[in-house]
């Protein structure tokens, strides 16, 4: 998992050079061991002549998963088995993987174009979670669960790597990295927003606390922020913090309410004074 995520971060930078006039990040897809999933590649009409799917695993060269032209795709060895399937629509190509295994953990690229110009359309890093590995002595706690921030204000999120056993504190002391991801709308994949962190902000007896400070400018900064901590070659995910823009406090209703209450009191006093007179 550690090697795979390292390749993911490295290729996030490479993709900015090879893809596009508008730089795009490599997205992250997390699957459970044994899941079925489908990766999507949007294709414009002028790019639909030649098409390729590639797999890039850390430490290996690119492997061609499938190739074809004008909608006719052929799976290449060793992907030409029942677990892999290529389908296409009017504007998309789909790569389906059944019964996902740890060996499928890699970065997947799609490429389209003509004989003269080929472009990488997008890339997705597939991380595979194995619940058999979850019975470990470390776990991640992310706080807060929800954060409401006014536009232009900053927020601080925390991600703690906690040890269930005191003696585990000394294990892998120099092999911890934290990565922060943000998912926007429900149909978007998380994208890496922060990766350059290799040490704790706060070190306690059985925990290591990482912090992310960010200024929320507008609605594009809202969404769910996730942390992923790598320790001892394993990746542990936080449960996420939902960030939304809070409404600014408007004192007008309070002032109007106070004036109304004052008017009622004054009227009551005047009526009481008149009755006594």
From TrEMBL:
It is found in: Cell membrane. Residues 1-19 form the signal peptide. PROSITE patterns: IG_LIKE. Residues 23-112, 138-229 form the Ig-like domain. The keyword Cell membrane applies. Keywords: Cell membrane, Disulfide bond, Glycoprotein, Immunity, Membrane, Signal, Transmembrane, Transmembrane helix. The chain crosses the membrane at residues 252-272. It comes from the Eukaryota. GO terms for biological process: immune system process; response to bacterium. PANTHER family: NITR9, T-CELL RECEPTOR ALPHA CHAIN V REGION-RELATED. This is Uncharacterized protein LOC128362797. It comes from Scomber scombrus (Atlantic mackerel).
């Amino acid at each position: 998992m550690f090697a795979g995520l390292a390749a993911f971060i490295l290729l996030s930078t490479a993709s900015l050079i090879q893809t596009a006039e508008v730089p795009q990040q490599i997205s992250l897809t997390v699957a459970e061991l044994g899941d079925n999933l489908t990766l999507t590649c949007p294709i414009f009409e002028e790019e639909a002549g030649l098409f390729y799917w590639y797999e890039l695993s850390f430490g290996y060269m690119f492997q061609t998963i499938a190739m074809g032209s004008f909608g006719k795709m052929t799976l290449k060895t060793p992907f030409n088995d029942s677990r892999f399937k290529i389908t296409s629509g009017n504007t998309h190509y789909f790569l389906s993987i059944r019964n996902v295994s740890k060996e499928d953990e890699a970065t997947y690229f799609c490429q389209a174009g003509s004989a003269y110009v080929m472009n990488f359309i997008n890339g997705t890093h597939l991380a595979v979670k194995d619940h058999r590995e979850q019975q470990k002595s470390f776990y991640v706690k992310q706080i807060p669960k929800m954060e409401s921030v006014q536009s232009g204000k900053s927020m601080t999120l925390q991600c703690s790597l906690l040890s269930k056993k005191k003696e585990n504190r000394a294990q892998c002391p120099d092999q911890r990295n934290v990565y922060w991801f943000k998912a926007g709308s429900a149909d978007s994949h998380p994208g890496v927003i922060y990766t350059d962190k290799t040490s704790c902000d706060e070190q306690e007896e059985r925990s290591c606390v990482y912090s992310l400070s960010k200024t929320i400018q507008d609605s594009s900064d809202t969404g769910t922020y996730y942390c992923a901590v790598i320790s001892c070659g394993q990746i542990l995910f936080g449960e996420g913090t939902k960030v939304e823009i809070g409404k600014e406090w408007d004192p007008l209703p309070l002032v109007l309410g106070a004036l109304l209450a004052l008017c009622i009191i004054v009227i009551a006093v005047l009526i009481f004074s008149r009755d006594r007179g």
